[in-house]
Design goal:
This protein is mainly α. The chain has helices at about 5-30, 35-55, 60-90, 95-105, 110-120, 135-150, 175-180, 185-205, 205-235, 240-265, 270-300, 310-340, 340-360, 365-380. It folds into three domains: about 5-215, no CATH class; about 285-340, no CATH class; about 345-380, no CATH class. About 75% of the residues lie in helices and about 0% in strands. Helix 2 runs parallel beside helix 10 (about 240-265) and helix 9 runs antiparallel to helix 10. The longest helix is centred in the last third of the chain and has 32 residues, at about 270-300.
């Protein structure tokens, strides 16, 4: 077995065992079980995809970055569970409680920087755009090290605990203030991966653009979902906040899966259809919810003097929304396909037009030429051949 395979399997096993152990303990304690299970699923997905990429395409550093992130997150979760268990059941007297709390509290910056900056910088081929981008890597490493040292060597209580930091060094704090990166530079650091993705998309081939679409789609899902969390918090709507939070966790879980699909090019070109369907269903759902809500409000006002008016308003609004579903879905899907999945839309229209012409065409040569043109324009094949089986000659019966 090659050394890189051993390292990849070891990192993946560390991530999976640590995260699943944490999930089992948390489930037994009934503490934030749904959140923990989704985070565990994300770490397992990250470790699995990272191991597959590291073994199959070892030159692509994206897989190794996923593995490192998964291993650190798994160890962090395990440290959190151990420290909480020690504090809850033994007053923090278990051996290594302070170290476990320190690990959980101080290493999160590494996977965050890897997933938000490092991976987008080198995705999808595992290399920087050019040597000029090395300054971003230097700044990235600097930021990660500084964040760990600043928080990890800070004397006093560890964040969110009543445990004293075992590695606190007061004398080093002035030095950390000197090497601290300016806030403006940190902003540029976090904007650099966006610029890198935009440049790659503009310069990239058709395959690279499809790969980038997977990353952009899952990132957009997570950003939108966690934006909903912020909006729900401002509005004071717990249900909206909960929906956004779990949507963000699903987006986080889909991040490594999208990368794996894109890098390995498995069903790569289905991203356009996925985006199209997602947007269409989101629009249809939004319209139907609005119709239902307005219908209930209007009918309740109109039927205020009648018995069971509220029940009747809900029933009628539900029937109206159900009746609108199919025609609305078809219209919205057609409009979205024209914008976001144009290739599939044009191919479908071309095939439908050929089917209409085929009904009235009887000349075999004309059908063959039309079929050749239809296949070439809809599927974009590099070569095309048509084989027609000759009908066997009819035998003349005689006695």
């Amino acid at each position: 077995m090659k050394a890189r395979t051993v390292v990849a399997v070891a990192l993946a096993a560390t991530a999976v065992v640590a995260s699943m152990t944490s999930a089992v303990v948390v489930s037994l304690d009934h503490f934030d079980t749904p959140d923990t299970l989704l985070l565990t699923l994300a770490v397992v997905a990250m470790a699995t995809v990272g191991a597959i990429l590291a073994i199959r395409v070892p030159a692509n550093n994206v897989g190794w970055l996923l593995l490192v992130s998964a291993a650190i997150l798994g160890i962090e979760f395990l440290g959190l569970v151990y420290a909480q268990g020690s504090i809850t059941y033994a007053g923090g007297s278990w051996p290594g409680t302070a170290v476990a709390a320190w690990v959980y509290s101080n290493l999160l910056a590494v996977p965050v920087l890897i997933m938000t900056v490092a991976i987008p910088l080198i995705y999808p081929n595992g290399r920087l755009l050019s040597p000029r981008w090395r300054w971003v890597v230097v700044a990235l490493v600097w930021s990660a090290v500084e964040a760990i040292l600043r928080q990890g060597l800070k004397p006093g209580l560890i964040a969110d605990t009543n445990i004293e930091n075992p590695f606190g060094v007061a004398e080093i704090q002035p030095l950390l203030n000197i090497i601290h990166l300016p806030d403006a530079f940190v902003v540029v650091l976090f904007l650099s991966p966006i610029a890198a993705v935009a440049i790659r998309y503009r310069r990239g081939s058709l395959v690279e653009r499809q790969q980038l679409k997977w990353l952009i789609a899952v990132t957009a899902l997570a950003v939108i979902a966690w934006s909903v969390v912020t909006v729900g918090g401002v509005m004071g709507a717990p249900l909206v906040t909960t929906i956004g939070w779990y949507g963000g966790l699903l987006g986080f879980t889909g991040f490594p899966l999208a990368i794996g699909i894109a890098v390995l090019r498995y069903r790569l070109y289905e991203i356009d259809q996925i985006i199209s369907r997602t947007i269409a269903w989101a629009l249809v759902t939004g319209v139907l919810v609005a119709v239902f809500a307005l219908g209930v409000i209007a009918l309740q006002a109109a039927l205020a003097g009648f018995t069971q008016g509220e029940t009747l308003a809900v029933a009628v609004s539900t029937l109206v929304a159900a009746a609108l579903f199919q025609p609305l879905r078809r219209r919205v899907q057609r409009a979205v396909d024209r914008r976001f999945d144009r290739a599939t839309y044009d191919a479908r229209r071309t095939v439908e037009a050929f089917a209409e012409r085929l009904r009235d065409e009887v000349a075999l040569d004309a059908v063959e030429a039309d079929l050749d043109q239809t296949v070439a324009s809809s599927i974009k094949l590099s070569s095309f051949g048509l084989w027609l089986r000759q009908a066997p000659p009819r035998s003349r019966g005689g006695s």
